[in-house]
Structures are given as structure tokens and as C-alpha cells.
């Protein structure tokens, strides 16, 4: 349980980190919270020749409240997000989700940017970011660019990050009026990898009809999976129990869940349906509560 | 672990059969294959490198023994792969059926995966095998289309060879 030999760099600025990543290319890995990378190194499954430690970069950490969006630095720890009053006010879906991210010890070290860049198909944050229509700021030595969460995740542990590029910040847009949210997840034990999880945001108009519904699932595909069929089933309808049940059933067209020793693909489909219905129901209840 | 599916290729069963058993085509289309040699009419040996995400690509030496070969209809592969991170072994059956101008390939593999990869990555095996199957079929399909295009004397070539 010891990693093979590697070079360790602790840059003092983001620019220096980007220069190091550019210099060492594919042999280098950026070290954020290290809650996935370091265990993989200790198992010797990951064998980077160099680690570029981002933990000294205070400029990458922090939570900022803007008029149109909440901004999270990539090195913001999960525990800081979980306890933030600003996040609770501006992105309550994120606050509701954080307790499901692994265990408190892991949340003390794990970071927002690290979880997103790792792109584990069972991770909660990628799905929440996709459901929230968040966008990520990517920086490299040659410049920076914004990318929508939906386009960032490209496959199994795969992202749109180019070699030498870092996720440096995340922007979560403010919720539209009459928007409800909910996160639901099932795992064998709390903190285990999710068997299935669902994040949703639902916006109703003044007459109570569904304007938009963003539903993203985890552990049912190669990465976070949007559910356009479920969204289409809700478009323009009153969120009655029957309508929500039909939308939840429609999720089946959008997912291709894996089988493993913990759950068969068929069981995951069943869970996805049930959890989506619960999440949509709670999201709509929240709109009703806040409107009354 | 069961990996199964079907895929429709353009082209005759004979053409698809030839492609599927061509070691150079296998090396080009099977994800992660670095080398594949037909050491005997019914036996292949090679090297593959398989990795996902932060997991450093693991090298496997692979051997495939053919059995129950009935051209151009079906064959069975005994697969044996070994590497520092674990092993995989099992059998895969491939069947080809004519479907109009095309060919339907049906495959079913029953693979055991063991060692460190299975212990640590169990929850990802199904997703990784699905991903590799999809990538393999896509590049095989491209290969088929490329061959069909170059074999068609009426197509792009400005100087077509002698007609049969």
C-alpha cells in the first residue's frame, strides 16, 4: 500500500502549476484533495511520474456570490460547500447533495474541482452540476475557456480537459423563480458508491405548469446522464402524481445502467424510476411550499 | 461477466468473416491492442494495454485459441489474458448471419476477471467492457466501410483496376 516513486511539486501560483503540468505532460497528475488519486496510487493502479500539488493555491479556493451565479473555486473542499450559508441560499440542490458525497473524512479533504475532473460515473457532483446547468472555467498555459457541465463530461472517467488544462472554477447559475430542487440516492450503506442517484431542478409557471425540468442521474451510465425523455414528458403539464410517475418511467429511455455484484442493470432501472419520481415529487412540493 | 450483443455490418458473411479473423484488423480495431500475431491457423497471441481515467494503462499478454470453426458461420474463442494487475479468461462465441446485403454478427462472451483489477474495479468492469465493445465495433465498422469503398471499382478511384 505504498505508491511507486514520483516527483512532487508544490507550486506557489496557478501559473506555476500550469507550467509544471505543461512541462510534464501526460506523466503528471494534478493533486487536489487526493481522495481518489492517492488510493489509486497506493494500489499502484495509478502511477503518475509527477504530482503537481494544488493544495497551496489559496487563489483556487473559496465561494463567491455573484448576481447571476454562485462561484466555487476548484479547490473548495466538499465540507466548505456543505456548510456554506451562501451555497444553501443560492444553490440549495448542492447543499442537499453534499452529505451524500462519500464520508465526512473524505469531504474534509476532497474538492469540487477534483471530483469533477475525476468524473467517476458514481459521483454526485457531476450529476448535480449537469442538472444545475453549471459551467466550468478551464485554464491552461495558453489561456482559459468556459465549458458547460453537460459538454465537459465525455465518457467513463473522461472529460473535455486537454492535457495541461485545469478546472479552476465552477459557476452555478441562480435558480429561476418557482424552481424546486431535490436529490435522491440509494446505496447499500451511506457513503458507499451510489447504486443510483438523481438530481433534479423543476421550474413551474404561475399557472403551475412545468416550464423546465433538468434531471440528471448518476451510476446509470458512463458519466452523469441527462434525462431528456423525462423532461419532455413534463413539458407544459401540471405536475400531478400521474404526470410525475410517467416522467419517471420515461427515464428508462435515457439510461443504460451497468450490472455489478451490488445491483443488476434491471434493479438499477427500477431504482432510477422510483428515485426520479421521489425527487420530482419533492421538488414540486418545495415550489408549492415556497409559493404559499 | 457476460458481454453480448449484435451488430449489423454491410458486406457479405465471407467478407466479414475474413476481416474478423485477420490479425492486422484485430490489432487496429480492438481497443488497446498493441500487437496481434496469428501464431497458428487457430491461435493468436498479442499484447493489449487497457486503462481508464487515472488508472495507468495496464499491459496484458493475450492468447486466443479458436475452436468450433465453421466458416463463414460461427467460431468460438478461448480467451486468456494475463497482466500485472490481474487476469481475464473465458470463452466468446461469434455467429454470422446473412441479412439482405449485410451481415449480422451476434456475439456472447462469458469472461472471468480476477486479480487486483477485479478486487478494486469490480463496479466498473461492466461499464469498461461496454465501452470497449462499442469502440471495437465502431472501428470494425469503419474498417468494413473502408474496404467496401476501396473494393468497389466504380467508386472514387480515377484509375480502376481490371474488372473481374
Give, in order, the helices and strands of chain B: EHHEEEEEEH
Radius of gyration of chain B: 17 Å
Give the beta-strand count of chain B. 7
Whole-number average pLDDT of chain B?
Answer: 87
Quaternary structure state of the chains depicted = heterodimer
Order of helices and strands of chain A: EHEHEEEHHHHHHEEHEEEEEEEHHH
**Chain pair sharing the greatest interface:** A-B, 28 and 20 residues
- Intertermini distance of chain B: 47 Å
First and last CA, distance of chain A: 56 Å
Runs of chain B in which pLDDT lies below 50 for 5 or more consecutive residues are: 154-164
Q: Taking all residues together, what is the mean pLDDT of chain A?
A: 96
Strand content bin of chain A: 15-25%
Which sequence of strands runs across the widest sheet of chain B?
1-7-6-5-4-3-2
Q: Structural class of the secondary elements of chain B?
A: alpha+beta
Largest sheet of chain A: 5 strands, antiparallel
Count of DSSP E strands of chain A? 14
- Rough outline of chain B: globular
Percent helix among the residues of chain B?
25-40%
Coarse morphology of chain A: globular
Instruction: Report the total helices of chain B.
Output: 3
Question: Could you name the key traits of this structure?
Answer:
heterodimer, A: 292 residues, alpha+beta, 5-stranded antiparallel beta sheet, 4-stranded antiparallel beta sheet, 36% helix, globular, B: 164 residues, 7-stranded antiparallel beta sheet, 3 helices, 7 strands
Amino acid at each position: 500500500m505504498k505508491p511507486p516513486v514520483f516527483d512532487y511539486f508544490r507550486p506557489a501560483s496557478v501559473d506555476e502549476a500550469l507550467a509544471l503540468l505543461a512541462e510534464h505532460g501526460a506523466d503528471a497528475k494534478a493533486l487536489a484533495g487526493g481522495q481518489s488519486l492517492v488510493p489509486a496510487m497506493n494500489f499502484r493502479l495509478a502511477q503518475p511520474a509527477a504530482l503537481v500539488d494544488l493544495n497551496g493555491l489559496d487563489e483556487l479556493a473559496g465561494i463567491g456570490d455573484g448576481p447571476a451565479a454562485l462561484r466555487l473555486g476548484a479547490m473548495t473542499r466538499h465540507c466548505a460547500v456543505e456548510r456554506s450559508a451562501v451555497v444553501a441560499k443560492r444553490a440549495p440542490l448542492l447543499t442537499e447533495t453534499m452529505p451524500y458525497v462519500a464520508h465526512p473524512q473524505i469531504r474534509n479533504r476532497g474538492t469540487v474541482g477534483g471530483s469533477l475532473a475525476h468524473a467517476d460515473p458514481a459521483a454526485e457532483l457531476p450529476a448535480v452540476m449537469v442538472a444545475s446547468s453549471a459551467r466550468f472555467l478551464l485554464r491552461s498555459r495558453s489561456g482559459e475557456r468556459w465549458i458547460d457541465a453537460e459538454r465537459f463530461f465525455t465518457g467513463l472517467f473522461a472529460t473535455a480537459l486537454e492535457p495541461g488544462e485545469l478546472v479552476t472554477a465552477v459557476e452555478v447559475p441562480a435558480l429561476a423563480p418557482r424552481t424546486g430542487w431535490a436529490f435522491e440516492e440509494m446505496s447499500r450503506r451511506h457513503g458507499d458508491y451510489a447504486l443510483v442517484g438523481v438530481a433534479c431542478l423543476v421550474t413551474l409557471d404561475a399557472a403551475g405548469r412545468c416550464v423546465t425540468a433538468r434531471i440528471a442521474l448518476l451510476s446509470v451510465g458512463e458519466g452523469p446522464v441527462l434525462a431528456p425523455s423525462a423532461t419532455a414528458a413534463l413539458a407544459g403539464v401540471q405536475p400531478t402524481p400521474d404526470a410525475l410517475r410517467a416522467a419517471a418511467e420515461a427515464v428508462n429511455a435515457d439510461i443504460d445502467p451497468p450490472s455489478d455484484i451490488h445491483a443488476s442493470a434491471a434493479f438499477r432501472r427500477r431504482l432510477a424510476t422510483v428515485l426520479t419520481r421521489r425527487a420530482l415529487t419533492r421538488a414540486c412540493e418545495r415550489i408549492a411550499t415556497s409559493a404559499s | 461477466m457476460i458481454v453480448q450483443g449484435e451488430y449489423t455490418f454491410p458486406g457479405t458473411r465471407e467478407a466479414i468473416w475474413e476481416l474478423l479473423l485477420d490479425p492486422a484488423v484485430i490489432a487496429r480495431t480492438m481497443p488497446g491492442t498493441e500487437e496481434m500475431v496469428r501464431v497458428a491457423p487457430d491461435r493468436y497471441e498479442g499484447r493489449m494495454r487497457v486503462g481508464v481515467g487515472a488508472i495507468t494503462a495496464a499491459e496484458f499478454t493475450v492468447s486466443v485459441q479458436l475452436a468450433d470453426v465453421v466458416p463463414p458461420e460461427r467460431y468460438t474463442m478461448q480467451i486468456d489474458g494475463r497482466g500485472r494487475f490481474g487476469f481475464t479468461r473465458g470463452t466468446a462465441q461469434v455467429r454470422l448471419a446473412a441479412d439482405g446485403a449485410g451481415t449480422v454478427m451476434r456475439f456472447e462472451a462469458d469472461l472471468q476477471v480476477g486479480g487486483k483489477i477485479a478486487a478494486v474495479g469490480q463496479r466498473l468492469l461492466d461499464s469498461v467492457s461496454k465501452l470497449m465493445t462499442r469502440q471495437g465495433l465502431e472501428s470494425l465498422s469503419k474498417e468494413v466501410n473502408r474496404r467496401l469503398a476501396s473494393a468497389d471499382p466504380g467508386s472514387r478511384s480515377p484509375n480502376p483496376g481490371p474488372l473481374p
